[in-house]
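Hi! If you just cloned this repository, the fastest way to understand the data is to look at a raw example. We've pasted two of them here, unedited. The first protein comes first, obviously.
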Amino acid sequence: MNIVLTGAGGFLGWHVRVLLRAIGWPEPVVLTQADLTRPADAADRVGGADLLLHLGGVNRGSPAELAAGNLGSAAALVQVLRRCPVPPKRVVFANSVQAGNGTPYGDTKAAAAAALAAAADVGYDFDDVLLPNLYGEHGRPFYNSVVATFCRVLADGGRPEVAGDRQLDLVHVQDAAARLIGAPPGHAWDPSMPPVRIDVALLAAWLTDFATTYRSGEIPALSDRHAVRLFNTYRSHCFPSHFPLPLTRRSDVRGTLVETMKVHGGGGQTFASTTRPGNSRGDHFHLAKVERFAVLRGTAEIRLRRVGHREVVRFPVSGDDPVVVDMPTMWAHEITNTGTEELLTLFWANELFDPARPDTYPEPVAQPSLPAAETPA
């Protein structure tokens, strides 16, 4: 499938690119705002595509900024589409449930949808997807969602403030990404976009409970898929600054005791591995799984890289000074034995391993990142 993508550097755009990587679809052709100012050149890149996803736009700003970012970008894309010798088969617009609600944001989103729908006379199928409130890993605080804002405040040691309580329908951004690209249902995504309906005050209390429990290294109760995904969203704001977490050692003449896991209201799966000197394990990422590493004997380096980014985060670890490092979702990770003796590592995951639905996607930590996008997610 040949996919073209605008808004690739935004919150939703990054998650779409990660999901494409996970399910093994080809890398999309990325159109930046600069590309849209050259409609003839952009048309050559768009023409004949199976799918064009228009995710570009702005969520906040003055009325003029909203008009330029939402209606302006759609109008520029229309000029590109009208120049295509062979139009894309399908154009999907990431619209909002607020479209047409009388606000500058809602009205510019509605106008953008109308412009793209009118241009469908060139021969593409148009899909206007009204997205609700999206939340997920690495959302931009005070911009993308109240979830991202609350998570950032809590990760920085503060307490979220609720100015006016109301009910929200929250959808995880990976579910929205699956709906937009037309992915079949998977273990870690659901294109039907099931929401969690929650009051803002209850959301703040839920995330505060996560933060309070997690500060001690304990895992809060993860009762359903939205609890897991909200917890992963909070964890994305804690990494890497909150790690590694030191473990308390209790030693006597018999030996040493180290507590590595305390899980509230749940179990999961614990397993151990040995690794010979110079060898590595991992080089993959997860979309939803919560995973913890603890080296009990030997020395190692844990390396992580956020999918689509270049920077590699490194944690030297040793069984002589035990710590835990939790793997954030959508970060490729590996552990390498850097010592001269066999490495013994304890692993924990919040769910039982299912070979049919492993939620494990190959991605070498050292592999070049996804093509550069215009704006970092």
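Ok, and the second one:
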Amino acid sequence: MNRQHKLLGVGIAGTVIAALCCFTPALVILLGVVGLSGWLGYLDYALLPALAFFIGLTAYALYRNREDQQQPDCCSPNQQNGTNK
């Protein structure tokens, strides 16, 4: 697995986790059970920027993946001096 695929996987996983925490009461219930319900007021300050970061990371990974797929064959590392190896 190359670097762009790993970056895309991290971006998608982070986006899904941040979205679940933002739009469902899962984190509210978890913090209430653990006794940290006082932190609920600060969740938006952490979760919304995290969601924006992971969406941006996913978009960047998709852009890099598309850019790598559009490279012409003449520039591949397997070709040297005009001959295929």
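That's it. A detail worth noticing about the second one: Residues 8 and 62 are 7 Å apart (CA to CA).
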